[in-house]
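# nightly structure sweep
# worker-07 picked up a monomer target from the shared queue
# config: single-sequence mode, recycle default, output format = structure tokens
# input follows
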Amino acid sequence: MKKNIILTTVLVFSVFASCDLIDGTGVENPNLTLDAARDLPNPATAFVNGLQEQLASTANSCLTTQELATDNYMNAQTFYNQNVDGGTYRDIDTDFRNCQAAIGTLREQADYVLTDVITIDPVPAKEAEAYFFRGIASLWSGEIFTTLPNDAVVAAVPPATHFAEAIADFTAALAIDGTNVSYLLARARANYDAGNQAAAVADANAAITADASGTYVRYIIFDGVDGPTNTIQDALHDRGGFDDLQPLPRLDFLDPKFFDISGSVDSNVPLLKIEEAHLILAEAEIADGDLPGARTVMTAVANLANSRAKSTVDDSGEGRSGQGTVAQRPDTSAYSVRASASDPFVDGLVLDRVATLATPSISATSVTAADITAIANDVDALTTLYLLRQEIFFAEGRRMFDLGIRWPVSEREALLNPNIVASDRVATVPAFLPPISEHDAFTDNAATFEVTIQHNLNRTIATGRGNRF
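# output follows
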């Protein structure tokens, strides 16, 4: 019965133009209406379960292309987005459209739970969750898009507006459950995104206090049997020898983060984790000019990330040695990698792909205590911090925001919504970034087993954008 309730919830949300689902003959099915779903036992529980499922569907619509739009991964030869690696961000791109639509669906579903379902089944915990999911829709709107409408057929609003709405929703959730770690982390992240240092620090500290274990993670949950299955897992691992998404060599030790655990169990994707709070505190220390304090916090978060469990995965089918039309990729642990021609070579970043190996499923970092001790100035500190963020949030769709890249409003939205203007349909790419086609470029000296990345983008962010606060 529970699965039927959840399925009904998902079905009734799939059409917004009408309150009823109507079959192809025009005959209404009285068992598949919003009113009928609300009359089921415990409707708030069923509808919030539907929000969890829509969260996974939204991640599937956005996450893989977000990773491809960064230096984290390149698209070797796949059916995944072939444009964003080279910096082609057109409003006709179906991936942008699908991501935008999925975020809108998540927001609309949460709206309905708050305005209709909770009024007839007032369960405080479910109400708090509905605020949380609506807040996530606003958070992702601001992180991913140049602008985006925050309702049907209205003008697109800038990221600052989306972040303010996310903060309001997370605040409403915290008014119901004031020590919920995920709500505190989500509001800390939204305040960080908005550049609100004092508020972000306060929420980060509160989240650390509320997290008794010091290891909190909230996941986007996938279902290998009934769906949604994990799309980025397919791209990173399940297709094996198709050479799908190849990580930047300095990030090779983190891949694959997600893989097919069994025939019926997919990997879940971290949505929020306590590392976020520590990273916010470290950046605040740098903003305040306290390098010793920043070193202390960065050491703690590096230790936490590297204490996380690893998963054993058979990645022997992953081709990285130049088969077919795929460029040569480092495929042995004999390689050393440097972040740019002016950085030192580092060992241990490339793994052997000939047998089973252990890779992080939550967090890990290559940053060592010696690296942190060597920090001499603000640029060094920020470069190290953004490397920590890149590695800890690897494959979670976070890197694009740190780079400052945002996608355009889709052409379909512009055709249906007369309030969309030309500037909404243009991607945001900061002027301080090098050409996007060079973001994951490197030279591979196969004779000496040395790789040199063309651009250390963490230093580029540190010098071009500086501190978030």
